[in-house]
Amino acid sequence: MTKEISLDPRLAADSIAIGKLALCEVRLQDDARFPWLVLVPQRENVSELFELAEPDQAAAMEEIARVSAALRAVTQCLKINVGALGNIVRQLHIHVVARDEGDAAWPGPVWGAGTRVAYDDAAKADLIARLRSALAMQG
Question: What are the pLDDT digits (tens) for 127-137?
Answer without folding.
Answer: 999 999 999 98
